[in-house]
Design a protein that fits this description.
single chain; about 325 residues; 14 helices
């Protein structure tokens, strides 16, 4: 049973391609078992995920894409932050779709407080590594080799996993400036253990710092500005490689919300059984201004109102009246 103990300088003859393939398949299966399939931007579990309405958030999206595409940008991490309902996930989704279509998206992970597996750190790195095998096929060899070398890598700390399964394989495989290099992690504050949120930030920053800026790998992190997260980003070692982008009044959200509302009302009028002729002068500018004002820069409020009004089995005029009466209280 232990015939190879203490053996050295020996040759194994007749090692077949099938044997090598079996080894690779085993490593890949181990990786696949640790993956959360529903966490990616285009997962079926996230079908019809919110994204930016056309012609809205143009300044924010442009700012992020400039960072993604810049050859001279030295910051490797961008922190997109804002209050609940400010539209962080919609922006992250829109960036993910655009970069995916451009061939620039390496991986994405959308945390969710209410979805098992997507509210913990445990499978974050494995999920990113699995997607990396697809988006940058040349990384697969190095990722699987590292898994075979240490099958318990998935129980290691996030920093070790990130360096072993993502950064090192990417740097070994990345040979051109066109290699997809953007990783998007959305809803970090929805990772249920707060100290894990900090560990993720620190692990990403440390692993990206170790290559001294030699690769094009970048990470977009989106979250609320919770105390622990904010303190982590204030650390010198992290802030020095990080760009911050706040979703505040700088980007004039009221204008975008107004545009969103008018577009959605037009769509509702075309699709509702009452017909656009019945709803020709509806809604009033005053109603729209009121909803915008009550939104206080938060897209989620306006979106919720539209969703309530758009029920095809209900009269949208009456539902808008109800909404307006509630907001006037």
């Amino acid at each position: 049973m232990h015939s190879f103990d203490q053996a050295s300088h020996f040759v194994i003859n007749n090692l077949t391609q099938t044997d090598i393939r079996t080894c690779v398949d085993h490593g890949f299966r181990l990786l696949q078992q640790q993956t959360i399939a529903g966490a990616s931007h285009n997962a079926g579990e996230r079908y019809d995920a919110p994204k930016c309405h056309p012609e809205t958030r143009k300044a924010v999206l442009s700012n992020i894409m400039s960072w993604v595409n810049s050859d001279s940008e030295t910051t490797r991490v961008m922190w997109l932050y804002g209050a609940a309902g400010a539209g962080k996930s919609a922006i992250a989704q829109s960036i993910a779709e655009e970069c995916y279509n451009m061939g620039r998206l390496a991986a994405s992970f959308f945390f969710s407080r209410f979805e098992a597996g997507r509210n913990k750190k445990d499978r974050l790195v494995a999920t990113i590594a699995f997607q990396l095998c697809v988006s940058v096929p040349a990384t697969k060899e190095y990722i699987i080799k590292n898994i075979e070398k240490n099958p318990n890598i998935f129980t290691a700390n996030i920093g070790t996993q990130m360096q072993t399964l993502v950064v090192e394989p990417f740097n070994l495989a990345s040979s051109t400036d066109t290699t997809p290099g953007l990783i998007i992690i959305d809803g970090l504050d929805e990772c249920e253990v707060r100290k894990d949120q900090v560990e993720i930030i620190e692990a990403i920053a440390k692993s990206l710092s170790m290559d001294h800026g030699s690769s094009r790998l970048r990470v977009l992190l989106a979250s609320r500005a919770e105390v622990e997260i904010r303190q982590a980003f204030n650390e010198q070692s992290i802030s020095s490689i990080c760009t911050r982008l706040a979703l505040d009044d700088t980007f004039d959200p009221d204008k975008d919300i107004d545009l969103f509302l008018r577009s959605r009302f037009q769509l509702l009028k075309r699709q509702h059984m009452l017909g656009s002729s019945t709803l020709v002068s509806w809604p009033s500018d005053e109603d729209i201004r009121l909803i915008v004002r009550r939104s206080s820069g938060q897209f989620i409020y306006a979106s919720t109102v539209i969703q309530y009004i758009s029920d095809p089995r209900q009269n949208p005029q009456k539902r808008l009246d109800t909404s307006v009466k509630i907001t006037k209280r």
